[in-house]
Replication initiation protein
Amino acid sequence: MSDTDLYALDVDDPTALKRMLSDGFEDWSKQAASTGFCSRPVRLFGQASTFDRRSGQHLHTFDSRDLPDSVLYIRCGNRRSSRCPSCSHEYQGDMWHLLSAGVSGGDKGVPESVSTHPLVFLTLTAPSFGTVHSSTRPGAQPRPCTVNSAPGQCGHGRPRRCTEHHDVDDARVGQALCRDCYDYEGQTIWQWHCPELWRRYTIRLRRLVAAHLGMSEKASRDLLRVQFAKVGEYQKRGAIHLHALVRLDGAPTDEEPFPSPAVDVPASWLAERCLEAARDVEIDAAPVDAYDSARVLRFGRQVDARPVQRHTHEDGDVSPEMVAAYLAKYATKSAGDVATEGTPNRHLKQLRETCLELCGRALLDEGFSSPYALLGKWADALGFRGHFASKSRQFSTTLGTLRDARRKYHRDREQLETRGDLATVDDSLDAVEHTVVINEFRFVGQGWLTPGDAELARSAADAAREWKDARRAAPRPHEKGKNHGEALLHR
Ligand SMILES: [Zn+2]
Ligand SMILES: [Zn+2]
Ligand SMILES: [Zn+2]
């Protein structure tokens, strides 16, 4: 696929046309491609000098003034799809590789033996804070919206029950039946404490695993480790659900970072412990001010913990690849993405306002010593201040390792191409290893220089993504399952 194929010719901004007709278009286009057609690339000005590591000899200098706009463009790296589709797409791909390696092994430095460790796919939900309109799952038998609610009206004269059938895209889904009855404060405070609830959950689970095996927690650390990878997903009602992969390993060492657990327990046993821990954990949340009362916070009752069967699954089962794809997809969603979808959402707006209001009340009452003093800062995240994606150190490889490997691959390829000496690849790779690069760049801004450039990058990004997805979706016989999973991501 050539560069010019990437630009759809419906780009009608005059600055786009000017760019396409300019002398430096080909060079600009190469740069844009090297950012992956990022939406808001960082612009850097300066030089990079390459030296031979052994002799200290100066080999060459790269100067941003030699480029079309006298600047070097670098990817923004934003993982949110609403901010930068290209960088988000790349992040999603990395997440998939990371999760998939942690599930099946045999990739990215994680041994294939991890695929024999007990593994559970866990979902922890938020409790109910009031009745909301709900949809029928795609493909399921249509069912009335709020089937379990009591009949009649609430104290505000609104019906307690809705008997309509809503599609998932219906703007009413996730909205409270009565916004005066809905416990906006309760949900906001739960969401604020959710990261702590998760932290206590992981501690409780480790203790339960040890206790059920008749060991002290300390003794169990020589034999077992519970490893996690977790992502947060916003429900339509604005509450966070946590999805996690929970894997049982042995105690890692430098030589063997992913050992098998020293006890033989099935994944169903681990799933039982996951459910038990979810029932156990709670937090006593402090009141917001003198007019408020303390709350006991817990996870919702709809906890789900399923063993992931990696070697025996049949069509229709949840496969390891699907689990990895599902989690990777949610890792790029955020409150901003949820709130901007479709029409202006009054329910989410009210949750945001509740964050600001509770923060104000907390500050008036106790000032900055209040546990809710910073709630306003997280209003856009609807009170959730945790990481949207996190993992324990030994779950898999890291995003940093994946990025470094990709950067090195591109740098090596670029240097080799510059030399035009692909016949002696081995020697050249050796030469690349023996150079050192001194970067002297300064930040001059972010984004493309003109609306036309931005439009060109956007149309090229769309085309490049479609092309990549089509290539990923085409199964290669030796790794059919993996490609299938990665293709699932980008639907
Ligand atoms: Zn970007
Ligand atoms: Zn309804
Ligand atoms: Zn009401």
In short: The radius of gyration is 26 Å. The longest strand covers residues 435-446.
